[in-house]
Specification:
heterodimer, A: 368 residues, 8-stranded mixed beta sheet, two-stranded antiparallel ribbon, 16 helices, 12 strands, 45% helix, B: 135 residues, mainly alpha, elongated
Chain lengths: 368, 135
């Protein structure tokens, strides 16, 4: 009897040892010391698979157009995707089968995306106003010229969603903007979660941070993302536990590596944009109060007259869904407005979980 | 008997405990205040180090980082202005094209109008001459 027990334990232990070795191998595969290693991993994982062409460039900012995979559906206006300012945009085109952009191009939607590039010293004076009434506005014009279509749809993700929301309010008289998709976009920062607590003016000296990075032009990603893994400690634990449990599943490991690759491929945040973002949104909640001024104009969310699709994640640890769910209370309802909560996290609803397919389909149904 | 699932259970308990402890820590204003102070001290050191670098660069008659940053900012501003102007010119070009098209369309329709009475006159004359022939 004793011997039998011992045998079972040894077998289990051996399996565990094997799993541990595989686990550490994957963890080490996610670490890069040179750019070559990083590029090699990106091509091995098939990151950002949808082919695209450059339409316009201004400084580090680039506007790309994705090559259609089927005959473009001219009934659907082109979609301009405005991504976050602190992450790379390929989270929306992560790998085959986990790409919103791939899905839309396969449906014949003409998709354009902004790549903000890497902010450097020269971005030190750039404000959020420059992004909205400058870059995005010009990209819209370039897109309509390139697509030979005046009508367009905006799709903003994360901070990009805040930019497109403000844009939609400021350019509400633009008849060519026909609808707006906001993905995990907060509007009421009173419910900003841990980030709101961490940026409390009593404990967080914003001016000191801004002044010390003014010369660098941008807040380094290491500073910004150092705290992100502590936003939801459970998520960090679950991430590693899932990897350990599913380390034998090749598809899972590939997706894990792709997500980890993106998660560690961050970009600096232009310092003056950071300042306004923290002060106007987190510390003063100006957007919802109608106190936000962009290019000498008050931003009034009630001015938005187009249908919008508000996408929320049930376990959003960056922008809690409570911060994004107040649209209905602020704006007058429009015909065709959609608000939907997807079961997942800030990133996983669009790039990992099976629910992503539902999300892709819902976006397509909304814009078509 | 020792079971491998026990380890998994222990892991989960540890995670739960850690999360609870961390949440308590994160909600502790004293802790956040101390983190803020530590960050301020680190940033003060950074400002001092940057100043020192700038002073060294100045004493060696070399351009400082802030000077290069200002130059970069200036270039970016000019680039944005050029982009705005380019867009404006393209819009004007479109407007001119539209005006020219409209003018051309207008001229064509006028020509048609001019042609039509002439044709009417000619056909009238033909009718008259044929009537004469009958007489």
């Amino acid at each position: 009897m004793e011997k039998e027990k011992f045998n079972i334990d040894v077998k289990e232990l051996e399996q565990m040892k094997e799993k541990s070795e595989k686990f550490w191998k994957v963890i080490n595969q996610c670490k890069f010391t040179t750019h070559d290693e990083k590029d090699k991993a990106a091509s091995e994982l098939g990151i950002a698979p949808t082919p695209k062409g450059l339409v316009y460039q201004e400084g580090t900012m680039k506007l790309y157009s994705y090559f259609p995979k089927v005959k473009p559906d001219k009934k659907i206006p082109p979609v301009l995707i405005v991504p976050s300012l602190i992450n790379k945009n390929y989270i929306l085109d992560l790998v085959n089968g986990f790409s919103l952009i791939e899905f839309l191009t396969l449906k014949g939607v003409r998709v354009y995306i902004i790549d903000w590039g890497t902010a450097g010293e020269e971005h030190g004076e750039l404000t959020i106003d420059n992004y909205i009434t400058g870059y995005i506005r010009r990209c819209v014009k370039k897109m309509s010229r390139h697509s030979e279509e005046k009508k367009y749809i905006l799709l903003g993700q994360c901070i990009g969603g805040i930019l497109t929301t403000i844009y939609s309010a400021l350019f509400s008289d633009d008849k060519n903007l026909i609808s707006h998709v906001a993905m995990t976009t907060p509007v009421n920062f009173e419910n900003g979660g841990k980030l709101k607590e961490w940026t409390n003016p009593e404990t967080f000296n914003l001016d000191k941070v801004v002044n010390s990075y003014r010369e660098n032009g941008a807040i380094p990603p290491e500073i910004l993302h150092a705290g992100f893994q502590f936003l939801d400690l459970n998520l960090t634990f679950t991430k590693y536990r899932n990897l350990f449990n599913f380390v034998d599943n090749e598809a899972f490991v590939k997706l894990y590596r792709a997500l980890d690759f993106w998660g560690n491929d961050n970009i600096p945040f232009p310092v003056m944009v950071f300042k306004k973002f923290i002060k106007a949104f987190y510390q003063q909640n100006q957007l919802i109060r109608g106190e936000l001024i962009i290019d000498d104009k008050y931003v009034n969310l009630c001015d938005i007259k187009i249908p919008f699709f508000n996408i929320l994640a049930s376990n959003d640890h960056v922008f809690p869904k409570e911060a994004a769910i107040e649209w209905k209370q602020i704006m007058a309802p429009h015909k065709g407005d959609v608000e939907k909560v997807y079961d997942g996290g800030h990133v996983s609803i669009v790039a990992a979980l099976p629910v992503r397919l539902q999300l892709y389909n819902d976006i397509y149904e909304f814009i078509k | 008997m020792w079971n491998i699932n026990m380890m998994d259970e222990m892991g989960k308990q540890w995670e739960k405990m850690m999360k609870q402890w961390f949440d308590e820590l994160m909600n502790n204003p004293e802790f956040l205040q101390n983190v803020g102070k530590t960050m301020e001290t680190a940033l003060t050191s950074k400002i001092l180090a940057d100043d020192m670098k700038n002073n060294i660069a100045k004493s060696m008659a070399m351009p400082t980082a802030s000077l290069v940053a200002r130059l970069g900012t200036h270039i970016m501003r000019q680039e944005s202005k050029i982009a705005e102007l380019e867009e404006h010119i393209l819009e004007l070009k479109d407007d001119i094209k539209n005006i020219l098209n409209a003018v051309e369309k207008n001229q064509n329709s006028k020509q048609k109008k001019v042609e039509t009475p002439e044709k009417a006159k000619k056909s009238d004359e033909k009718v008259k001459s044929s009537k004469k022939g009958v007489k």
